[in-house]
Write a structure and sequence with these properties.
Strand content: 25-35%
CATH superfamily of the largest domain: Gcn5-related N-acetyltransferase (GNAT)
Order of helices and strands: EHHEEEEHEEHHEHHEEEHEHEH
CATH topology of the largest domain: Aminopeptidase
Largest sheet: 8 strands, mixed
Radius of gyration: 20 Å
Length: 288
């Protein structure tokens, strides 16, 4: 019932139609997104594209492993209705036919067996004033109030913003990873999929947020801060202003973190917990 298709064997018209009609639809499974983030990917298909599961292949130790592309949080199984029995077939096939280093399913995928979970936080479409009054943590209300002397601007990628990103990209570990990030960012800009929001102290850029902009959702791709101005609370200010501008019409996806401090930061704006399953080879992880 499940078959493996290499890239050149995929019927992309059927694949895209399945994604578009799926109840689990997400940004990362799109062909154009995966083409940028993954140098090599296959698709597992159930029936005549009734359900699909994209997988990224990465070469490690001279072998091809299933892994998650950089800057990609969730993939998983996509179908009109999430079906646990069909999901179990995909999971069994994946484990049997591939060496899996790491694979993250999407938050809507359910399985008969218990899998490990990662955390993500999403704010649904809301009335901003009610969200701020009822869902913000007390400390976050205070922090955003104290940062009102800052200036919020939506900007483009120019010499200033690119230099700021390069200077403050501590979360991107290697130069090679940063080159992939720049390629991805260029793709987002060229296709108008990105919003770039800055917090300024006078004329000085101190925080910058990159958002993936979809019809019904904004997703936080990255948040950069100048540590010299940390006490100005630019991160809190910029997220608050984004929510003030857009949360009435679009949900806000923080794109998750299992780091305690970042997780609390997301929760403090009223982010609601959404868990998603993943499988990981713990032995291979020790060697990376």
């Amino acid at each position: 019932m499940i078959r493996k298709l290499r890239y050149q064997e995929i019927d992309f018209e059927k694949y895209s139609k399945c994604l578009e009609e799926s109840c689990q639809k997400n940004w990362y499974a799109r062909k154009d997104t995966l083409d940028v983030l993954s140098g090599k990917w296959h698709v597992l298909v159930y029936g005549d594209y009734e359900a699909v599961m994209p997988i990224h292949l990465s070469k490690k130790f001279g072998f091809n492993f299933v892994h998650m592309p950089l800057f990609c949080q969730q993939l998983g199984i996509f179908s009109k209705n999430d079906n646990r029995k069909i999901n179990d077939l995909f999971l069994t096939f994946l484990k049997k036919k591939y060496w899996v280093f790491l694979y993250s399913f999407n938050q809507y995928n359910n399985f008969s067996s218990a899998l490990e979970k990662k955390r993500n936080y999403i704010i649904p479409i809301s009335d901003y004033e009610i969200l701020r009054r009822k869902k913000y943590f007390k400390g976050r209300k205070s922090t955003t109030k104290c940062a009102q002397h800052l200036i919020y601007k939506e900007i483009g990628i120019n010499e200033e913003s690119m230099a700021f990103i390069e200077k403050n990209s501590k979360g991107i570990p290697t130069q090679g990873d940063f080159e992939i990030f720049k390629k991805y960012l260029n793709f987002l800009i060229e296709n108008t999929f990105v919003k770039i929001c800055g917090a300024y102290l006078g004329s000085q850029l101190i925080s910058l947020a990159l958002l993936i902009n979809e019809n019904e959702e904004l997703s936080l791709l990255a948040l950069f801060n100048d540590e010299e101005y940390r006490s100005e609370n630019g991160s809190s200010f910029i997220i608050d202003r984004i929510l003030q501008s857009y949360i009435h019409g679009k949900k806000f996806n923080f794109m998750g973190s299992n780091i305690r401090g970042i997780e609390i930061f997301f929760k403090s704006f009223g982010g609601e917990l959404h868990k998603y399953s993943f499988i990981e080879n713990k032995i291979l992880k020790r060697f990376t």
